[in-house]
Amino acid sequence: MRGRMMQMPLLVSSLIEHAYRVHGDREVVSRTMDGSVHRSSWGEVRTRSKCLAGALQARGIVTADRLATLGWNTHRHLEIYLGTSSMGAVCHTVNPRLHPSQLVYILNHAADRVLFVDPPFLPLVEAVVDKLDSIETHVILCGADELPDTSLPGAISYEEVLAEHDGEYSWPVLDENAASALCYTSGTTGNPKGALYSHRSTVLHAYGILQPDVFGLGRSSVVLPIVPMFHASAWGMPYATAAAGSKLVFPGPRLDPEGLTEQLWDEAVTHCAGVPSVFIPLLQHWRTTGAERPPSLEMMVIGGSAPPRALIEAIEGEFDIVFRHAWGMTEMSPLGSSNVLTPEQRAEPAKQRSAYHTKQGRPPFGVELRIVGEDGDILPNDGVAFGELQVRGPWVVDGYFASDEHKLTPDGWFPTGDVATLDPTCNIHITDRTKDLIKSGGEWISSIDVENTAMGHPGITMAAVIGVEDEKWGERPILIAVAATDPPPSFDSVIEYLEGTLAKWQLPDEVIFVDALPMGATGKVQKTQLREKYGKS
Ligand code: ADP
């Protein structure tokens, strides 16, 4: 017997319509390219995304066309997210930090028809435009009177496109399984691959991240997504805040500590989210300027790579802000887990709490996890056995855009490439990515554990550990670090510090100080580059 409930498809248009009907006056604030602050509202975002959809339709854009963006987090980017998906097209966010050859590969592979570009990224596109096969129109994200001189074909300002339509546009009723957005993984291995989200997966993921034990957002929340909208849809926050009616604050191009601090204060931000490499200099800025931490700030959501324990301890102990550790990946929309301590753990001092917080946490309803050993056996959730983390759920990919690559296991799980333990309550502890684990004398060494410990040394701000070929042991770890002091700490002082936590065979054989670690397009240390430079003995 079928249930007698309405069949209402889960659509991105339902998110923006809800935000307009119920939270139309809630603000959407955005820093623009010239540094000024733009104030808008969910109501205005809805009107303008309808103008965009109407104009694009009149220009011949049809269902399933891919429309690319190269943009910072701004109100215009939000309108493109909501307007293009809601009209049935696919919003394809492209990471401007990628190598130009990857940019070309991605835009051609997706066969994008329109490219929306923020002015600072114009030179990037101009340099490769001859190699782009499918782009017909370049929409520059600026006003009509701000259109820069550019050689791009079909260049027009965003505001002119919007002015082409009066906004009297009805969203089509789409199949909820239709594609809504496309995001390529940064391709640390092989060519980038496109995670193709659907309307249904996007809406379910939005419900997922609103849960109290994930980001816990509501109408009174003021949310600053520092994580870029070209990195796994800013972790779904543009959609979730529309559902919750939160005030949304966009940093535009200003991801520097001064710019972020100003917005945190001026807009009374309650929640911000980003990768560890953004928060380390932010806290350092507060320390060196003696600034108070922004009083409204309740929670910092941090994920994308393992946050060092020293960072976690500072957020909770020094600045009295709730730290929320999140794990996920582009292929998971991206949320996979979040770490909320038990009341007993919460009651402990910050130093002890930070140890619990280094774990990646439990999956929300909507994500299932298991770990699998090298021989394919499913391993116990005992907090000890470690193997590849595999996932499944309605917001996990089952393959890639325009690719025959078969990624799922025969029984339908997605292998993440992360190595982890799971405890009896499904609490994840990621020890490494499969390709970063170091095997020394038959024993596994977790590069994340060594890095995390090293970053607690007062003389070290950033650290990366890689395996170096070794005749006797197979591989041995070396530590490559950025010093917090001049001169940098001595090898002996680093080893002495690490000995407090790590076993002797886990200690690095060498410590190399560098001015900066190579960072990838999504703010993570590029270990491939380090391995190329230092990995051979
Ligand atoms: P890319 O493969 O392009 O870096 P993602 O941005 O999707 O793609 O990164 C996903 C990966 O980032 C995860 O598989 C994991 O290795 C790492 N990661 C994400 N969050 C965390 C975290 N909290 N702790 C440790 N690693 C993380």
Description:
The protein is of the alpha/beta class and 537 residues long. It has 3 domains: 346 residues, Rossmann fold (3-Layer(aba) Sandwich); 66 residues, Luciferase, domain 3; 97 residues, ANL, C-terminal domain (GMP Synthetase, Chain A, domain 3). The protein is built from 17 helices and 24 strands. The termini are far apart. The structure holds adenosine-5'-diphosphate.
Write a brief caption for the model.
This protein has 537 residues and is α/β, with parallel strands linked by helices. The protein has 17 helices and 24 strands.
Question: What keywords describe this structure?
Answer:
alpha/beta, GMP Synthetase, Chain A, domain 3, 3 domains, eight-stranded mixed beta sheet, seven-stranded mixed beta sheet, 30% helix
CATH topology grouping of the largest domain: Rossmann fold
Molecules bound to protein: adenosine-5'-diphosphate
- Write down the overall geometry: globular
Structural class: alpha/beta
Spatial strand sequence of the major β-sheet: 2-1-11-10-12-13-14-15
Low-confidence stretches: none
What is the chains' assembly state? single chain
